[in-house]
Design goal:
four-stranded antiparallel beta sheet, Serine Threonine Protein Phosphatase 5, Tetratricopeptide repeat, 16 helices, globular, Immunoglobulin-like, five-stranded mixed beta sheet, about 375 residues, alpha+beta
Amino acid sequence: MEPFKNKISPDLVQCLGMHIERHLEGFDRESYEAVILAELSSLELKQRARLIADETARILPDPLDGKFHILRSVLHPLENEGVDRSSDEEGIRGWGMMPLGMIVADHGLEDFEKSFALLKEMTKRATAEFEVRPFLDKDQERALSIMTPWVNDPSVHVRRLVSEGTRPRLPWGMRLKQLVGDPTPTLPLLEALKDDPEEYVRRSVANHLNDIAKDHPDLVAEIAARWLKDADKDREKLVRHACRSLVKQGHPATLKAFGLNPPEIALNEPEVTTRTVQYGNSMDFQIEMKSTSSEPQNLVLDYLIHFRKANGTLSPKVFKWTKVKLAPGEAVTLSRKHPIRPITTRVYYGGTQAVSLRINGQDFGYSEFELVMPSVG
């Protein structure tokens, strides 16, 4: 897959230069582009956006109204299309909004009204989820008062910004320490958006709740229980995605919200059928499980692989497995193959590893296996 940094490309720089030239008298387009293009290829994504933002802000007129007038003028006339939108001869959108949004965040903190009005237009052409965060950090109450009416905006991108831009722990974004400590100011916004007609918005609400769950798991469990009452399929899907981390962790109140009670089962240790696993192959195991309950029970099964680290200790990683409904006294045999092969997010070390189970949040069993790494040289 092409690196994201290539989205901030020489073509984008030249396209932006073309549009600025149309609206800014006396603009030295050739010099502007040359300064940026001299460094662009050596930089990563955010560095590229920062370079363009700084050089563009330097050539834009003062005061703020002058800067914002040009920024608004270069925006693409088409809005509210799909997420992957490219700038063209009609205007700037998509990844081109990243450096332009930085300019708003850098220079507009003294004028919330004008800055949010421009960011609202920008988010329709990409997203302003990162750029609203400095405003939330400076004056959360004021920023939220501006964003709150946007929950009813006709633009799906604006409605999503309400949820995504206020996430306490947005990946790649500034951490909003106030909302990490107390997420309650955004809960009315999530409440208003939970049944949004667009999955794009509902997915953001789910991710926002997942952020909150990292610091306030009981609060999210309470919300999940309330939202699941008389929920349709869309809302249930939202809540399940929101609670994915809590379910993996076996958080009792969250499991209870989904009707998952402590399991009543008889279970042997996981039987590893590949006691020695060659790197690149799979670790295979199976379990035999029998219900000891007098009532039917729903079970969510995950498994943990306790991977060996460089220092020889083991570190567990949870993997989702399956759901089972057991009748009273019913017995089942289940098997699983887990490939152990190269991935970018893990370094493997040979030696003793282990597998265990997590069923409705409770841990069961522990069986070891040996991982054999290829010899070097």
